[in-house]
Design brief:
- It is a single chain.
- This protein is α/β, with parallel strands linked by helices.
- It has one domain (14-423).
- It is 26% helix and 35% strand.
- It has 12 helices and 24 strands.
- It has helices spanning 3-11, 32-41, 46-61, 98-107, 109-116, 135-139, 147-153, 155-161, 172-180, 413-421, 426-442, 447-462; strands spanning 24-25, 83-84, 119-124, 127-133, 143-146, 185-189, 199-204, 211-212, 215-220, 225-233, 241-243, 246-251, 256-263, 269-279, 284-291, 296-299, 302-305, 311-320, 325-334, 340-349, 354-363, 371-380, 386-395, 401-410.
- Strands 5, 6, 8, 9, 11, 12, 14, 16, 17, 19, 21 and 23 form a 12-stranded mixed sheet that branches. It has a 10-stranded mixed sheet with strand order 4-3-7-10-13-15-18-20-22-24.
- Strand 3 (119-124) and strand 4 form a beta hairpin.
- The radius of gyration is 22 Å and the shape is globular.
- It comes from Candidatus Roizmanbacteria bacterium GW2011_GWA2_37_7.
- Residues 203-437 form the SUF system FeS cluster assembly SufBD core domain.
- Pfam families: SUFBD_core, SufBD_N.
- InterPro entries: Fe-S_cluster_assembly_SufBD, SUF_FeS_clus_asmbl_SufB, SUF_FeS_clus_asmbl_SufBD_core, SUF_FeS_clus_asmbl_SufBD_sf, SufBD_N.
C-alpha cells in the first residue's frame, strides 16, 4: 500500500481491499464487442442485446455534461466494465468464497440480515453473489431478486418496465449504464401487500479501475407498501473508479415506496447516478438520500407526479470533507392536480469540501391546487469550505402554493461555548451541533441505520473513521 493509500485508509473504515479474484474479467475499455460479450455471458434474450447495443451507440455520441462538477478526468478507456467474481450465485452465506464472505462479514451484512431485514442482496463487482428473502414474503407473492435473475424468470414484467422511465438517451451515464448494466435489484410487490421490514441491497467495489453499473427496478402495485435500503462502500486506491447506477420505480395507485441510500464510497469513486420514480393517483414516493463518501457525486432523485393526489418527498444529506464535491439535489415534476412535493436538503462542508444543492421543480398546466415546499440548509465548518445552491422553479399553473427557503450558516460560537461550558470537548460539541442540524433527515431513517449514519458523521467530524 502506498503512503497516500495508507493516509486515506486511516480516514475511511471500509477502505480495506481483498485480493482480486475473478471467474471472468473483461478487457479494459468499452467497445461494441465488450457489450455483446456481457450479454452473451448472461445468456440474455435478443431484445436486451439490441437494447444494450443501441445504448452503447448513444453513449458514444453523447457529450459529457457541461454543467456541474468537472468530469474530464474520467478515462473511459482505462476502466474494466465487467468482472464476474464467482461462477454461480451462492445459495447460502457459507458457500461464498472466503474473501467475499470476509468482506461482508466486516461490513456487517449477515448480522443486519438476521436482525433487521426481510430480504438482502449483496453485489460484489458486477454480479450479485448472494441474496435471501424471507419465506413469508415469498408466500405473499413479493419478488426480490437481482436484475439478471428477474430477466430470466420474469421476462415479461422486466420488458414492460425496463428503460421506460429513464430512456437510454436521457443522459450520457444513463446510456452507459444501459449498455453495460449488471446486477442490481428487482422488487415486485403485489396489490395490497405491505412489506413490514426493509429490503436491503449492498454494493461493494473491490477491484481497481473498475466500473459498477447496477440496475434497479421496483414496482409497487396498487395499495402496496415497501421500504428498500441500499448501502455502498469501496477500497481506497490511487486510481479512480466509476459508479453509474440507474434506478426506476413505479408507484401505483395508493401505493407507497421509500428508498433509502447511505452512500459511503471511498474518495476515489465518481458516483454518477440517475434515479427516477413514477407516481400514480394518491401514491407516495419518498427518497431518503445520504451522501457521505465518494470524490464526486452527482445525484438528483426525482418524482414524476402523474396521478391526482400523488405525493413526492426527497430528504437528503450531503457531507463533503477534504477532496470531496457533493452535487446533490432533487427533481419534482407535477403533472396532475392536487399533487404535493417536499424537498428537505441538508449539507455540511468541512476542510475545503464543497457541497451543492441542485434542484428542479416544474408545475405543468392543469396541475392546479398543487403544493411545493423546498428547504435548503447549508452548514459550513471552516473558511476553506464552500456551499452553493442552484434552485430552478418552472411554474405553469396559477392556482398553486409554492414555498422555498434557503439558509447558509457556520457553527455558532455561542452554541459551542454553551456546550463546552457543560463539559463537552470542542470536537464533541461540534459533532452534537452537526448531528442536530441533520436531525430532520436522520429521524426518517430506520433506527439501526440512523445510528450508523450518526456514528459515521461523528467520526468524520473527529477526522478519523475506523
Amino acid at each position: 500500500m502506498t503512503q497516500q493509500q495508507d493516509d486515506l485508509q486511516f480516514d475511511y473504515k471500509y477502505g480495506f481491499s481483498m485480493p482480486e479474484k475473478s471467474f471472468y474479467k473483461a478487457k479494459k475499455g468499452l467497445r461494441e464487442d465488450v457489450v455483446r460479450m456481457i450479454s452473451k455471458i448472461k445468456k440474455e434474450p435478443k431484445w436486451m442485446t439490441e437494447f444494450r447495443l443501441k445504448a452503447y451507440r448513444i453513449f458514444v455520441e453523447k457529450t459529457m455534461p457541461k454543467w456541474g462538477p468537472d468530469l474530464s478526468k474520467i478515462d473511459f478507456d482505462n476502466i474494466y466494465y465487467y468482472l464476474k467474481p464467482t461462477e454461480n450465485q451462492a445459495k447460502t452465506w457459507e458457500d461464498l468464497p472466503k474473501e467475499i464472505k470476509d468482506t461482508y462479514d466486516k461490513i456487517g451484512v449477515p448480522e443486519a440480515e438476521k436482525k433487521f431485514l426481510a430480504g438482502v442482496s449483496a453485489q460484489y463487482e458486477s454480479e450479485v453473489v448472494y441474496e435471501s428473502v424471507s419465506r413469508e414474503l415469498s408466500k405473499q407473492g413479493v419478488i426480490f431478486c437481482d436484475m439478471d435473475t428477474a430477466l430470466r424468470e420474469h421476462p415479461s414484467i422486466v420488458k414492460k418496465y425496463f428503460g421506460t422511465l429513464i430512456p437510454i438517451h436521457d443522459n450520457k451515464f444513463a446510456a452507459l449504464n444501459s449498455a453495460v448494466w449488471s446486477g442490481g435489484s428487482f422488487v415486485y410487490v403485489p396489490k395490497g401487500v405491505k412489506v413490514k421490514l426493509p429490503l436491503q441491497a449492498y454494493f461493494r467495489i473491490n477491484a481497481e479501475r473498475f466500473g459498477q453499473f447496477e440496475r434497479t427496478l421496483i414496482i409497487a402495485e396498487e395499495g402496496s407498501d415497501v421500504h428498500y435500503v441500499e448501502g455502498c462502500t469501496a477500497p481506497i486506491y490511487t486510481t479512480e473508479s466509476l459508479h453509474a447506477a440507474v434506478v426506476e420505480i413505479f408507484v401505483k395507485k395508493n401505493a407507497r415506496v421509500r428508498y433509502t441510500t447511505v452512500q459511503n464510497w471511498s474518495k476515489n469513486i465518481y458516483n454518477l447516478v440517475t434515479k427516477r420514480a413514477h407516481c400514480a393517483e394518491n401514491g407516495c414516493m419518498e427518497w431518503v438520500d445520504c451522501n457521505i463518501g465518494s470524490g464526486v457525486t452527482m445525484k438528483y432523485p426525482s418524482v414524476y407526479l402523474h396521478g391526482k393526489g400523488a405525493r413526492g418527498e426527497v430528504l437528503s444529506i450531503a457531507y463533503a470533507g477534504k477532496d470531496q464535491l457533493q452535487d446533490a439535489g432533487a427533481k419534482m415534476m407535477h403533472f396532475a392536480p392536487h399533487t404535493s412535493s417536499r424537498i428537505i436538503s441538508k449539507s455540511i462542508s468541512k476542510e475545503g469540501g464543497r457541497t451543492s444543492y441542485r434542484g428542479l421543480v416544474q408545475v405543468f398546466p392543469g396541475a392546479q391546487n398543487s403544493t411545493v415546499f423546498v428547504s435548503c440548509d447549508a452548514l459550513i465548518l471552516d473558511e476553506d469550505s464552500r456551499s452553493d445552491t442552484y434552485p430552478s422553479m418552472k411554474i405553469k399553473e396559477n392556482n398553486v402554493e409554492i414555498a422555498h427557503e434557503a439558509t447558509v450558516e457556520k457553527l455558532g460560537d455561542e452554541k459551542l461555548f454553551y456546550l463546552m461550558s457543560r463539559g463537552l470537548s470542542k470536537a464533541d460539541a461540534e459533532s452534537a451541533l452537526v448531528l442536530g442540524f441533520m436531525e430532520p433527515v436522520t429521524k426518517e431513517i430506520p433506527l439501526e441505520y440512523s445510528i450508523e449514519l450518526n456514528r459515521l458523521i461523528r467520526l468524520e467530524m473527529e477526522g478519523s473513521v475506523g
